[in-house]
Write a structure and sequence with these properties.
32 strands, about 25% strand, transcription, 3 domains, initiation factor, protein biosynthesis, alpha+beta, nucleus, Methylamine Dehydrogenase, Chain H
Length: about 725
């Protein structure tokens, strides 16, 4: 019987009627009481059909008429009021967006975006900064409230405008799909546990709040609630906020750099430059000592005596300073009010090598090629010596040049280091070499058990006196994925020490300007200070929310800098370990940092191709320079005068920048990208144009402070370095 088809009046219909008996389940969509009435009235007359066909609206009307006839006016009025908010089926009518559940965020964000795009151009740049935090918190609230499908639709619909500035954050947010992910995702916890700080001008804020109040039922209340719960909004007067927020500055910037966040925007919010992220922190910056480290008294006397001997042996040319006069001018600038004392950072006693190095520094400082700022719109002409490595099979991770311009070292993905002489001459032999071994122009240093991510030569300088103390590099530092730093002797070509302390791969290592100290940055989110005579780190710098990718010293050795993929740069006191400055404004991972020789300006670069200059004393951003294509700027270097900056990166170009030129960010010019051309000068390029990088649709504006661009064929530039004579060295690997 179960195999027979069910037809009208057949076994199928009979079994259904039996299953709907008193012991079986009721029919779908029909309450049990109505089902019993349907069985008692099989004829289907009016008495049996009326309850099932009667709508809620008709029932309400019948009751209202009854109440009216009986004179129950109060009850009638209350029922009419309740019925006005119900549809024909008795369901409540939604009149406010915030009552609609998941779709309310889509409607509210659309209302906000429409308002911003329809507002005056004067307010658009700052109002557009509001969209990102509202987008993030709307999506996280949808996931938290279990609106999974609505959240995915919201994310897909509105993510596109943020793909350029917040590419990494969008990728991380896309993995948050369930409520339990909110406690597992790093980015979700960062946003939910902190308030997003944003600064608006008073007029823009007032106009926004008036609009949200007028659109309260259409979604304004939803946006206002997000701003109230998840954001920390600050208002400023344009006149009091300075030139950066002036009307003229906003118009000059145009739409080219609307993706550049303010210095105090984001998470954690902070006063510009201040490393104190407390919401109630005073807007007072710690005082810095940015002057040069004074020279040791005994060292000064020894250097002065040696310079006097050289002046007597080789008198200066007409119009040229004597070496003693040049030295006196240098040390005259040292005892300044903002200079540190030698007691703060202890150094070992000076040796004959230190005297020889200081003497040669004075000679090169006097005889250097002097670089000044632009004169009449024409920038200084620079020479770049490019060293290209062939047949590397993409195995080189990093490069470094020695200070005496004699050696170049490369860290390899195969866990070893190779050192070459830059002129092809034979390197000093190792004590382990036999007499029959042929001289070699390169050496392998083997010891790491993971890819080598950074190498750094100890301070050195070229010495013209072969009979004097050696001033060549004595040591080489390397760091690796094996979580160790190794110190190599360049005299014996062996590993002297392996330093262990970090818990994750070490991304960068660099020597201090005087040697003796060195600094590391790691994937464990810390930077650590070391000295060559201690196996353990001397100081740990903790505060970044993500990997520390690049590290650098201040020229006076009193401060250190760290750049992280949390998009921030921090300045630390070398002895106390306190964070003194926090610079935010990058839209992607910070990939390179370098402090100017005068100690007043810091340059930082990211993997979007942007370079930001920071005033260390004021803690404020000076300007942003654009020109590199996307992929990362891997190296920065300053000229001796701190007037010119050189950069190199993944786009295969070396670019020269005028640091002193004040420009509007929106000006630009056409520059070749990775082509096999010659040097391209800024003066020969037309202003107001843009460059298409790599044939992609997105244009890259070239700021007017770019002096020159030196494109390679297909060689990403790993290292750029100014010599003390203001020659630029660059190195990269050819990748056909």
């Amino acid at each position: 019987m179960s195999g027979q088809p069910s037809g009208p009046g057949g076994p199928g219909s009979r079994s259904v009627s039996i299953s709907n008996g008193p012991g079986g389940p009721p029919s779908a969509g029909m309450p049990p009481q109505q089902h019993m009435q349907a069985q008692q009235n099989p004829v289907g007359g009016p008495a049996g059909a009326q309850p099932g066909n009667q709508s809620q609206q008709n029932l309400n009307q019948i009751v209202l008429e009854y109440l009216s006839k009986k004179g129950y006016n109060r009850t009638e009025a209350m029922l009419r009021k309740e019925s006005a908010h119900q549809d024909a089926d008795g369901r409540p009518i939604v009149t406010r967006v915030e009552e609609s559940g998941g779709p309310k965020y889509t409607t509210a964000f659309g209302v906000l975006r429409t308002y911003i795009e329809d507002s005056l151009d004067l307010y658009k740049p700052e109002l557009r900064r509001l969209q990102w935090p509202v987008f993030v918190y709307s999506y996280l609230d949808l996931i938290r409230d279990h609106y999974i499908r609505e959240g995915e639709q919201f994310f897909t619909k509105f993510k596109e405008p943020f793909s350029r500035e917040h590419e990494d954050d969008l990728r991380a947010l896309s993995a948050v799909k369930l409520p339990q992910h909110l406690t597992e995702s790093h980015i979700a916890k960062v946003y939910l546990e902190n308030k997003y700080r944003l600064t608006l001008s008073i007029m823009a804020f007032n106009n926004l709040m008036q609009f949200l109040e007028s659109k309260n039922p259409e979604g304004g209340a939803v946006v206002a609630e997000i701003m109230n719960i998840h954001m920390e909004l600050h208002t400023v007067d344009r006149a009091a906020a300075g030139a950066e927020r002036s009307i003229a500055a906003i118009i000059a910037r145009g739409a080219v750099h609307e993706d550049m966040p303010a210095e105090d925007e984001g998470i954690p919010g902070h006063n510009p430059g201040s490393a104190n992220t407390d919401r109630n922190a005073p807007n007072v910056l710690a005082k810095l000592n940015l002057g040069p480290m004074p020279t040791e008294a005994e060292l000064q006397e020894d250097v002065r005596a040696e310079l006097s001997y050289r002046d007597a042996k080789n008198p200066p040319q007409p119009g040229q300073h004597s070496l003693v006069d040049e030295f006196e001018q240098i040390i005259k600038r040292e005892p300044t009010e903002d200079g540190p004392t030698r007691e703060v950072v202890p150094f070992p006693p000076s040796l004959a090598r230190d005297v020889a190095m200081e003497v040669q520094k004075v000679v090169e400082h006097r005889d250097r090629f002097r670089i000044t700022g632009r004169t009449g719109g024409v920038g200084p002409g620079l020479t770049v010596s490019m060293y290209t490595f062939h047949n590397t099979h993409d195995s080189i991770n990093c490069l470094d040049f020695s200070g005496d311009n004699e050696l170049v070292a490369a860290g390899m993905a195969e866990s070893y280091i190779r050192v070459w002489s830059m002129d092809g001459s034979a390197l000093p032999p190792s004590p382990h070499d036999s007499s029959s071994d042929r001289p070699q122009s390169s050496r392998r240093l083997i010891g790491h058990s993971g890819p080598v991510y950074a190498v750094s030569f100890s301070p050195s300088i070229a010495s013209p006196d072969p009979d004097g103390p050696s001033t060549a590099s004595q040591y080489l530092l390397s760091c690796s994925a094996d979580k160790t730093v190794r110190l190599w002797s360049l005299e014996t070509w062996t590993c002297l020490v392996a330093y262990r302390s970090h818990d994750n791969p070490i991304w960068d290592v660099t020597w201090g300007p005087q040697g003796h100290y060195f600094l590391t940055g790691s994937g464990d989110r810390t930077a650590r200070l070391w000295s060559t005579d201690h196996i353990e780190p001397l100081k740990m710098y903790v505060g970044h929310d993500n990997d520390v990718d690049c590290v650098s010293f201040h020229p006076n050795n009193l401060y250190v800098f760290t750049g992280s993929c949390d998009k921030s740069v921090r300045m630390w006191h070398i002895s106390t370990g306190n964070a003194l400055r926090l610079f935010t404004g990058h839209t992607s991972n910070v990939t390179a940092i370098a402090c100017s020789p005068d100690g007043k300006t810091l340059a930082s670069a990211d993997d979007t191709g942007a370079i930001l200059l920071w005033d260390l004393e004021k803690g404020r951003r000076k300007k942003r320079m654009r020109g590199h294509g996307k992929g990362g700027i891997w190296s920065l270097s300053w000229s001796v005068e701190s007037t010119v900056l050189v950069s190199g990166g993944a786009d295969g170009t070396v670019r020269v920048w005028d640091v002193l030129l004040e420009t509007s960010d929106s000006s630009g010019k056409v520059v070749a990208e990775g082509g096999a051309g010659a040097k391209i000068d800024a003066g020969k390029a037309g202003a107001g144009a843009v460059v298409k990088a790599g044939g992609k649709a997105k244009d890259i504006g070239i700021t007017a402070d770019q002096i020159s661009a030196f494109p390679t064929k297909k060689s990403p530039v790993y290292k750029v370095q100014f010599t003390r004579m203001n020659l630029v060295l660059a190195g990269g690997a050819y990748m056909p």
